[in-house]
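We modelled the chain as a single entity of 160 amino acids. Its sequence is:
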Amino acid sequence: MATTSTTSGLEVRLVPAVKADIPELTELNRLAYMYETIAQFAFLKWPEKEDMFNFFKARTAERFNHCKTQVFKAVQAINGKTIGFPCWTLEEPQDKPESGKPVPTPTASVIQQVPAGLNLHFVMTRSADVETLKNHMQGHKHCCQLSLNRARDVQDTLPT
């Protein structure tokens, strides 16, 4: 467990997350993206909560299912409140599948299932470039940070 203090004096601990944390992490994820412009196009019923929550819940669960991904949560040291969560995936040259096609990210895996309320045409055309970013490090052992979601009330106090 790592503890760090932010410039505002907020003491934060980074601890491993567990599957029981998925609903709480999902809501943090949803709220982190709720007001991003892309969300307004990606979700047909934006700002309706249910479709966004279900999408982020499936994506968060997919991260827990990946054998080389570690999900952490950032908690306030003073009260244990979860205020954010990062995810890291260890990627190695031998991870490339025999097909030669890149392994999909958790987001891509969820999109392939066509979740309700997702503007699939928009997401597929706009997220293709994002998905190719991981190809820049292929052939090298590295960690890929999949997300760093922070509670809106502490976004300015946490390091990025």
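As a brief sanity check on the tokenised model: The CA atoms of residues 83 and 154 lie 7 Å apart. Strands lie at 2-5, 11-16, 69-76, 82-91, 142-150.
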